[in-house]
Amino acid sequence: MTGKRAPRKPATRKPASRKPVPWGRIVARALIAGFAFVALVAFSAVLARLTLTPSPASADIAGSNMRPGHSLRQYAESYTFLSACKQIGGNLLLGAPFGLLLPVLVARKSRMLRVLAVTVLVMALVELAQGAIVEGRAFDVDDVILNTTGALIAYFLLGRRIGHSYHALARPSGRNRLAIRLRGNGARYRGTPGATGDGRK
Q: How many Å apart are CA 170 and CA 184, to the nearest integer?
């Protein structure tokens, strides 16, 4: 008669050690973040020059628009095709840098919502400044909508990939991540009573 086999004590699972991020990646992240910040500052200066410069010639015709879609209908009905494209395309392009640069500068969590919120906030402030202190310019909610649309288009076309590639530099290399995962799996198998290396009992 054979005796009962003593149960194996589960091995204590040791947390997988995280490999440090290579210095090359740290330097690359710093350079990319610095470039994005400088580019955003430069864009802000250009944006201020384009939007906050007085336009005395338009003082008699500039009027605020608080109704979404009103200016867009005006472009379609009263403007030539080229003039309408210039107005709409210009506002789309003004928002595009936000969709390209902010994914690098904001956290990965809820990145698209952060890009959307920052774009709406900045462009709304610009429009309010136009209407309050700049001669010949006025607040237009359709400009904010077009600017935000331009930021989202740029984000989905390219900004999301840029942000993903940038934040991926903060993780260990693929080989290190695989080793960490394998060590974690090995600890799980060893901690299961009667388990073998291939996961079968």
A: 21
